[in-house]
Specification:
By secondary structure, the chain is an alpha/beta fold. The protein is built from 11 helices and 15 strands. It is globular.
Length: 346
Amino acid sequence: MSTIKAIEFKDGVLYLLDQRKLPLKKELFSCKTFLDVDFAIKDMVVRGAPAIGAAAAYGTVLAAQEFSTDSKEVFLNKMEQALNVLHDSRPTAVNLMWAVKRMRSVLHDNKALTVKEIFEILKKEAELIFAEDIATNKAIAKYGNEIVPLHATILTHCNTGALATAGYGTALGVVREAHYGGKDIFVYADETRPRLQGGRLTAWELKEENIPAKLIADNTAATLIRDGKIDLILVGADRIALNGDTANKIGTFMLSVVAKVYKVPFYIVAPTTTIDYEIETGQEIVIEERSSEEVTCIEGQRIAPEGIDVYNPAFDVTPQENITGIITEKGIIKAPFKENVLKIRK
């Protein structure tokens, strides 16, 4: 089973497995302040919606630790500012906003207590968010395994494993469950330009656990689908609208279109915390646009001419009509998505 640990809070420091360095180096990035966490999220030291949420929760704890010697009034004011910074560190992944909102609520509910007591309560809440995510991922994996056929060939996009969560993974968690359950599966992991999370991270996780796999260039996937070599496509999500429209790593929409044409099942795999009940459709999702250097350079080496304009959205939106189902810890949601999404709401 997975032993990959990407997030650990120990002795007042948040340690993150630096995903910018993988697979060539396995290094930890130490966060001692909430601004370190803000940087880590923005610069993709940590990435993946659930992992970002867990990191932000611990970032709140670091802020409380940093301001612990201030007066109650100053402490509370500084905590509000820190929560706003963490909330805005990236715009698309709803788990980030969910975690910050939850930590803010705990702060407000306990503001009558001493600063020390508030710190301890916030720390326990962050630990709970972390533990809940692991349990959620394992429940997702069990439901997802139900739709994986024996000897299935699965296509993945981006990284949805232990590196993208508190542990185990979402879409890659389903892959793990099928593999360790003896289903004799095979995985095609596409590279996922421009940051190559599939090539650098998913391929690394698959190799770490000896799951049979091949790495492919993004533009190979359509040929494999057309030629009947893919039985199932499993992808993650950064935000899901009420109607089922889903924002995920750029390139997901393209895969869904080809899958629909060739009738290959296309599943979103995500915790229910990724569902944004405040938006009706994917048109309301803010899509983060990142720097041109992610496209024009690889590891600092320029691969495109100086001065060329670049369009670099981090995500795209897959419309609900292209989605076979959404695999969550509460079961598999099928169309009509809005009706069934509302049924599982707490």
